[in-house]
Amino acid sequence: MLTQLRDQFRKTEVYKSIFRHSYQDTQRNRALQIVDNVFLHLHPVRVPRHATNLGYTWGMGGITFLLFIVLTITGVILMFYYRPTAQYAYEDMKYLMNDVPFGPLIRNMHRWAAHAMVLTVMLHMFRVFLTGSYKPPRQFNWVIGVILLVLTLLLSFSGYLLPWDQLAIWAVTVGTNMARATPLLGHEGPFGPELGLRPDNDVRFVLLGGTEVGPPTLLRFYVGHCIFLPLIATIFMIVHFWRVRKDGGISGPPPGKNNF
Amino acid sequence: MQQFLEIISKPDNIPIVLLLVSVIFFTWLAWAKAKKNDSQQIPEEAKMDDKVQVWPYLVRMEFLMSIVVMAVLVVWSVFLDAPLEEPANRALTPNPSKAPWYFLGLQELLVYFDPWIAGVVLPTLIIIGLMAIPYVDINEKGNGYYTFKERKFAILTFCFGFLILWVALIVLGTFMRGPGWNFFWPWEKWDPHYVAVLTNVDLSEMIGIPTRLPDNSLNPVAFLFGGVLVFGFYSLIPIYWMMKRKTEIMKKLGPLRYNIVAFLFLTMVGLVIKILLRLGPPILGLNPVKYVWVTPWFNI
Ligand code: HEM
């Protein structure tokens, strides 16, 4: 009875319009499973066996991407409860941690996934270096990777300020103080004073929207953290994945290696 | 020791503990794989280059890893709360003030360099240097499998930079730098009143050339001494090395790539030298070196 119903259902136009092939375990269906799916279509249909071996890739690129997705989802949820002004930011964090159902879980997941992503992106780079996977034809994808690394650090750093507590503002103060010393562009950097730079017109001022970490900084970092940086990072990730495919899939020993 | 355990178990420092453990594990893993590959004619990866279907072989792996990662993340988030300290207060500076953990290696460099080098020039060079790697490493071997034998220089240089200058300095900056950014061993208690009494001298002063003249203007001899030293370091060593070792690889590199490699490599070596100039002399009972080259606009 149930099987009959199921088979009937599978013959309807609705079902067929969603699932374009049967699930029988055939070579053809396995290929279609990948090609007919937007998300899995990132993949080729077949890969060399070592690409499925955790010992080779350490899975770090994939985990970094997964964490980025987790961060996007939890980040959007956090945005419902957070107002980026010096008046409300800290109160909103307290509210989130004490009164919002599952608030702490969402915030913790966002925080720890962010830390973990910085860690996994470094390990991913380490792996790519050690397998020499930046060598031709993948040179440019490595460069894109370095940009992604910088974007990951910037995302994490800009997010660090948002709780607006002591930890946040002093860590960001220490970090952004460096900008003062930028050669040519900072008021304490080499040739800065000679070029007429003052605390209120150098790069640090532009970065912070003031001479110290204050409410305008919070807004700047918020917009950068929630809109600008994720957008740029997404674009570079798309190019990164595209290039992995276009550069011939995952790296591996040259064909000649087999018959030395 | 008590204090050390406290710092190590601070929720925000867990990533550093993870970093240390995972870096050691993966270095060991890669080393074991490289050693195995180097001892045989064909790398292991080449024996696995037959094709398999992505569905199910790769997708199931990704699915499994996703579940594991999510499980770890949820457990981590249930049991450890993200820190939320007192509200921001500009009038209350914590001591020590530390940047987020991934920048602590750079913050540690502030001990040895002025901010414009530690905070701006070196990070920029790290980024540019990383991007340059594929274009200056013209060794075709070792592409797509673990090996050490076939690319010793590249691997040693990168590992030194990553493991020592990045990871180890982060660990040092987090766990052993206390109030006033003073150094404390893990078993020592952070003493906020501790004052390190060290008089810094410039390198020229070490050999008897004062940096400042009696009227407090810059001594031209000291200025020249430092300048010659810095420029000599960056120009003479590459030239000497090129004359001494006229190998195939150097010819293939060409002057542009050779000079880029030399510059980046010497910057890394120079960084270590500067660190040693600061830490070494006190061990011998001498004053630590502050600057190698003092100019009216900047000091190195
Ligand atoms: C947001 C950061 C990043 C994400 C999400 C990401 C993701 C990925 C993924 C999923 C792969 C497929 C193979 C694998 O998992 O190892 C990959 C490959 C690659 N990545 Fe990344 N990556 C990131 C950052 C980087 C960085 C920092 C570098 C280097 C500086 C880099 C360089 C490469 C290269 C050269 C490949 C090709 C490797 C090969 O074919 O073996 N990526 N990336």
Can you walk through the features of this model?
The complex is a heterodimer of chains A (260) and B (300). With 260 residues, chain A is mainly α. Chain A has one domain (56-249): Cytochrome Bc1 Complex, Chain C. Helix content of chain A is 62%, strand content 1%. Chain A has eleven helices and one strand; from the N terminus they run αααβαααααααα. Chain A has helices at 2-11, 13-18, 27-35, 54-57, 60-79, 89-98, 103-130, 139-161, 166-177, 203-208, 215-246; one strand at residues 46-48. In chain A, helix 5 packs antiparallel against helix 7, helix 8 (139-161) crosses helix 9 (166-177) and helix 8 (139-161) runs antiparallel to helix 11. Chain A is flat. The termini of chain A are far apart. The model of chain A has no long low-confidence stretch (mean pLDDT 92). Chain B has 300 residues and is mainly α. Helix content of chain B is 60%, strand content 1%. Chain B is built from ten helices and one strand, in the order H-H-H-E-H-H-H-H-H-H-H. Chain B has helices at residues 2-8, 14-38, 44-47, 54-79, 104-109, 115-136, 152-175, 203-206, 220-244, 248-283, and one strand at residues 51-53. The longest helix of chain B has 36 residues, at 248-283. The radius of gyration of chain B is 24 Å and the shape is flat. Chains A and B meet through helix 3, strand 1, helix 4, helix 5 and helix 6 of A and helix 2, helix 3, strand 1, helix 4 and helix 6 of B. Strand 1 of chain A pairs antiparallel with strand 1 (51-53) of chain B. Protoporphyrin IX containing FE (HEM) is lined by residues 57, 60-62, 64-65, 68, 121, 124-125, 128, 131, 133-134, 138, 141-142, 145-146, 148-149, 152, 237, 240, 244, 250-251 of chain A.
